[in-house]
């Protein structure tokens, strides 16, 4: 299919750019100045590609360049916090602007229809690509946050010579328990501690699976020759655990971190004395 | 002779919501929703915790044995008291021996075997229907003052 109108769009690049940025400003899907350069480059590349391939071959080298640029634009827009709607609007506005110019250039309805059809297919294809790039940009943000959370979620604190404490916040699932256990056991070796305190004040609910994970952690600690105290058991948690029928009798448990520390001092035969 | 007719106790549903459970990440949002319902009917912290723990147990079973399914949360009323009812529906293999499954310490997996019997002790009403090859439905109700 030959379509000369699409090729001649290149001659009206500046006009197209003006209409496009006007449209973008109207529906508020741009932050203005920072994007002008990008939009300009995108228009230039896309019109070049259209001129050379006439829109027939969207796999060509020229289109490849346009797609690369577009993916870059979309993911940077995603990171700058544009909504999916605004992101899609970016390309749809371009189509609108190009259609406007096309209808001025071509008077023959059949040719105009053909030109619009090709333009539509090119832009639709790019819209899908933008969307994928946008999602990927967002997913990058999420996975970075997951990494950050898992990094900060298991700090092992050395509270005294020979005593380490590990506050657990949030839900204890299998993978989390693994990380907690590894960190705790490593710290016991590194600091030469003989007592470990697991504080579960920040665990919202203790069901049988969480309890099982706690019991496993305590057993592993004991195998390392250290004693493990579980602290931060709230009244409602204590009652729930009893009703569930979980047996924690073999484990030293305390209501607060303070009383766990006191127990640790007793075990180490230390006394805290007020200075006279 | 006067005939004393005892009024059948009926429960009415005030609010209802359905949540799909497919992966382990769905557990925490579900628990938070159940907590919201508990707070709305004015449950004490203790009863909220019991309800959430029971939900947590059953939803883990739903994922582990039922391969996922759906959970319906309702806020219910029986005229005297308000409460929350949670229904867990899966299309898994079903439970072959329900008496055995309700026994403390029995597990086909490697868990403590407290899920079903423990849950029953945590809530006021507990109902389980299972059919081999056709899935399991567990319904629990916790009353505000129960």
Structural notes for this entry:
The complex is a heterodimer of chains A (276) and B (146). With 276 residues, chain A is of the alpha/beta class. Chain A folds into 2 domains: 4-147, Globin-like; 157-267, Transcription Regulator spoIIAA, CATH 3.30.750. Chain A is 65% helix and 9% strand. Chain A has a 5-stranded mixed sheet, with helices on both faces. In chain A, β2 (163-169), α7 and β3 form a beta-alpha-beta unit. Chain B has 146 residues and is an alpha+beta fold. Chain B has one domain (12-143): Histidine kinase-like ATPase, C-terminal domain (Heat Shock Protein 90, 2-Layer Sandwich). In chain B, 32% of the residues lie in helices and 30% in strands. Chain B is built from 4 helices and 5 strands; from the N terminus they run βααββααββ. Chain B has a 5-stranded antiparallel sheet, covered by helices on one side. In chain B, β2 and β3 (82-90) form a beta hairpin. In chain B, α1 (27-40) packs antiparallel against α2 (45-64) and α2 runs antiparallel to α4 (115-122). The N and C termini of chain B lie far apart (36 Å). The model of chain B is unreliable at 1-8 (pLDDT under 50). The interface between A and B is medium-sized, with 19 and 24 residues.
Structural class of chain B: alpha+beta
What is the CATH top level name of chain B? Answer: Alpha Beta
CATH class of the largest domain in chain A: Mainly Alpha
**Radius of gyration computed on alpha carbons of chain B:** 16 Å
Our measurement of the CA-to-CA distance between the termini of chain B, rounded to an integer number of angstroms, reads 36 Å
Uncertain residue segments of chain A: none
CATH architect. name of chain B: 2-Layer Sandwich
Q: Determine the number of helices of chain B (DSSP H or I, runs of at least 4 residues).
A: 4
Mean pLDDT of chain B: 85
| Annotation field: number of helices of chain A | 10
| Spatial sequence of strands, sheet with the most strands of chain B | 1-2-3-5-4
- Helix/strand order of chain A, N-terminal first: HHHHHHEEHEHEHEH
Query: Main beta sheet of chain A: strand number and arrangement?
Result: 5 strands, mixed
Q: Shape of chain B, please?
A: globular
Structural class of chain A: alpha/beta
Q: Which regions of chain B contain 5 or more consecutive residues with pLDDT less than 50?
A: 1-8
Please give the largest β-sheet of chain B: 5 strands, antiparallel
Number of domains of chain A: 2
Q: Radius of gyration of chain A, Cα only, in angstroms? A: 32 Å
> Largest interface, counted with CB-CB under 8 A?
A-B, 19 and 24 residues
